[in-house]
Amino acid sequence: MKKINNKIAVCIMSGGMDSTLSAYMMQTRGYNIIAVHFNYNQRTQSKELECFHNISDALKVTRKYILDLDFFKQLGATSALTDKTIEIPIDGVEEGIVPVTYVPFRNGIFLSMAAAIAEKESAELISIGVVQEDSSGYPDCKESYIHSMQNAINLGTKDETNIKIDMPLVHLKKSEIVAKAIELQVPLSLTWSCYKNSDIACGVCDSCRLRLNGFLQAGVTDPIKYV
User: Fold this and answer.
1) Whose CA is closest to 33, among 67, 63, 66, 1?
2) Where are the domains of the chain?
3) Cα atoms found within 13 Å of the Cα of residue 191, Cβ hemisphere only
4) 114: pLDDT strictly greater than 80
5) Rounded CA gap, 155 and 121, in Å?
6) How large a percentage of the chain has pLDDT more than 90?
7) Under CATH, to which class is 8-218 assigned?
8) Angstrom distance (rounded) from CA 166 to CA 131
9) Could you tell me the pTM of the whole model?
10) What's the rounded Cα separation, in Å, for the pair 88 and 79?
């Protein structure tokens, strides 16, 4: 890979607004982006992959990894994101309760695989777009958990490997994420957040609600279509 400099960031990119902004922030900081996407049998897998490719093109990324995690099918009965027989909740999430859209240890698995890529590619940083405010009660979106994963990764890699996990959005509100994305001219029209649909966003699932509320509070119109 031809590089402008030797700063490399492995960016976990789902095709959603948060991970897209995180990648743009890393590029703004002067990192060469290695884009990583996971197919894990999620409902909107084809749409997310399409968004990932489009966003990578917009970022002019030349190095991409697309990893198929078929084993998540065996965990399907535990999450509405990977098991279509479980209804996606549309009435909001009860505080303090891990919702049915939680996929067991998903971010831990993603970070572990991203760490292997980072060590292989001599990258110094992994970017992940976790946000504590709207993590929907997911335990693997907590800042303390991500810090623990960083420590574990560096204990389990070569002595000369020193990988930082950057979570630039972790303390931002969704409205602040929208505002920052507009500031950096992130193509939000290419991103996808809906848990249910792959053509027109439902507007009622938890992820759509959080996104729409963020745009509303930021005083900006969301460029994607909703039912």
Assistant:
1) 63
2) 8-218
3) 24
4) yes
5) 18
6) 85
7) alpha beta
8) 12
9) 0.94
10) 9
| Tokens at 134, concatenated | 């709207």
Dihedral angle sign, alpha carbons of residues 38, 81, 209, 149: negative
Integer Cα distance of 220 and 168 in angstroms: 22
Neighbours of 129 (CB within 10 A): 24
Q: Name the percent of the chain lying above pLDDT 70.
A: 93
Query: Which residue in 4, 1, 58, 7 sits closest to 31, CA to CA?
Result: 7
Q: What pLDDT score does 217 carry?
A: 97
Angle between helices 17-28 and 45-59 (to 10 degrees): 20
Q: What is the pLDDT of residues 162-196, one digit of tens each?
A: 999 999 999 999 999 999 999 999 999 999 999 99
**Exposed e or buried b for every residue in 57-88, given b needs 16+ CB within 10 A?**
eebebebebeeebeebeebbeebbbbeeeeeb
Query: Where do we find the tokens 């031809």?
Result: 2
Q: Which residues, other chains included, contact 142 with Cβ-Cβ below 8 Å and sequence gap of 6+?
A: 130, 132, 135
Structure tokens belonging to residue 18: 């948060």
Q: E strands within 13-110?
A: 32-39, 63-68
Contact 136, 99 (CB under 8 A): yes
* pLDDT at position 97: 82
